[in-house]
Amino acid sequence: MRFDIVSLFPEFVAQLAAHGVVGRAGERGLLSLYGWNPRDFAEGNYRRVDDRPFGGGPGMVMLVDPLRAAIRAARAADPAPAKTIYLSPQGSCLTQAKVRDLASQPRLILLCGRYEGVDERLLQAEVDEEISIGDYVLSGGELAAAVLVDAVARLQEGALNDADSAEQDSFGSDGLLDCPHYTRPVEHELGAVPEVLLSGNHAEIARWRRMQALGRTWLRRPDLLDEAGLSKRDRALLEA
Ligand code: SAM
């Protein structure tokens, strides 16, 4: 999968590509990241990329032309069709279902705003979708792009060392939160590992984990249970 990130801070992209699951996915040839700096497409001695907002008010607005040229150059750099996404607090919220959908795309172009945002005409003409990472305002789209790339990268086949890992995480196909996890030592001053996990009885361990996942979801995110499509057995476990 290919990501093209349009950003005034292309070094940010290099950082993203250097670490963790995203870095490993890159090394394994599962994804590639390219940065496009609108300043490289800006004209004049000052290579201006922003200007004051019409109508007055604080801050600056990113100009149409450098952004449009950067997006178009990114689009032309590869023949695969690319969806163009603007990271924006006004977009629809990024969920794991959305991440799964994005992970099946061959390419994404991610536009990162700065200042007060981007001239609306550019968004109307060049952007397919606006995505938010939550109801708060960041000072730039780069962190939001990093969140999106990380979440999508770990769903690329072969990116995680254990293929089942993503499926067992919270918001997997069952829509529940993950169960609690324990590792060595068995006994610790903070408590002991639940005995069932040491029993070697795989059916009992699976049942315990399912109960924990159901219970946690019920306590912490009951809204998820409505969407989770629980079986009769799950309902019996919840009522137990
Ligand atoms: N004036 C804009 C508004 O209120 O909608 C906010 C501009 S914000 C200071 C600068 C940039 O950060 C935005 O253009 C966007 O790219 C990014 N950004 C801020 N919050 C975000 C969020 N919650 N999700 C995704 N991107 C965000």
Automatic annotation (TrEMBL):
Catalytic activity entry: guanosine(37) in tRNA + S-adenosyl-L-methionine = N(1)-methylguanosine(37) in tRNA + S-adenosyl-L-homocysteine + H(+)
Pfam families: tRNA_m1G_MT
EC number, UniProt record: 2.1.1.228
UniProt cross-references to InterPro entries, sorted A to Z: Alpha/beta_knot_MTases, tRNA_m1G_MeTrfase_C_sf, tRNA_m1G_MeTrfase_TrmD, tRNA_m1G_MTases_N, tRNA_MeTrfase_TRMD/TRM10
Localization of this protein: Cytoplasm
Alphabetical list of CDD domains matching this protein: TrmD-like (cd18080)
Keyword RNA-binding carried by entry: no
GO terms for cellular component: cytosol
Binding site for S-adenosyl-L-methionine: 113, 133-138
UniProt keywords, alphabetically: Cytoplasm, Methyltransferase, S-adenosyl-L-methionine, Transferase, tRNA processing
Cytoplasm listed as a keyword: yes
Biological processes, Gene Ontology terms: tRNA N1-guanine methylation
Domain tRNA methyltransferase TRMD/TRM10-type, first and last residues per copy: 1-226
Assigned protein family: Belongs to the RNA methyltransferase TrmD family.
Description of how the protein assembles with itself and partners: Homodimer.
PANTHER family reported for this sequence: TRNA (GUANINE-N(1)-)-METHYLTRANSFERASE (PTHR46417:SF1)
Protein name listed in UniProt: tRNA (guanine-N(1)-)-methyltransferase
Gene field: trmD
